[in-house]
Hints:
Blueprint: H1 3-25, H2 27-44, H3 51-71, H4 75-96, H5 103-128, H6 136-162
Helix pairs in contact: 1-2, 1-3, 1-5, 2-3, 2-4, 3-4, 4-5
Amino acid sequence: MSPIRLIARPMLAAGYILNGVERLRKPEAAAASVGPLLNQARKQVDVPVDAVTLARATGVAQVAAGSMLAIGRFPRLSASILVGTYLLDTVGERLSADKTTSKEEKKVRNERTLLRTSMLGGALLAAVDTAGRPGLWWRTQHAAEDLWSSVEDTSKQALSALGVD
């Protein structure tokens, strides 16, 4: 692992871990933000979980995925999980925002949304970071090209053996 990744991953993960711990310590506060999102989901499908349980579950996911990202284990998967849980936070918070809030409360909410958005950007970058190795798409494309080349060579050899050119 490069020195930059060695330093950057724990720095990025720290905010997510802290958020997850806060969700576990005070799930009721987090439930207020995911509640409206859960209500929207219940209009479409039956969701057999309450907002407090969802808040705790996302807290556990954030602590676990953040810890894994910090130590460099399954960093792309961990970052993807963090993106998903933080999207719940961000969208839920925006849905639960009271329309009658003061200018100061709106300013704080907008700053928090900007912070969350920047953290999401960092996690998205971590989710697609292959650490200089070829990604799945590149490997698949090259494997297909190699397979096609093998099929062509085998076909030419078979036709040559049959005396058909």
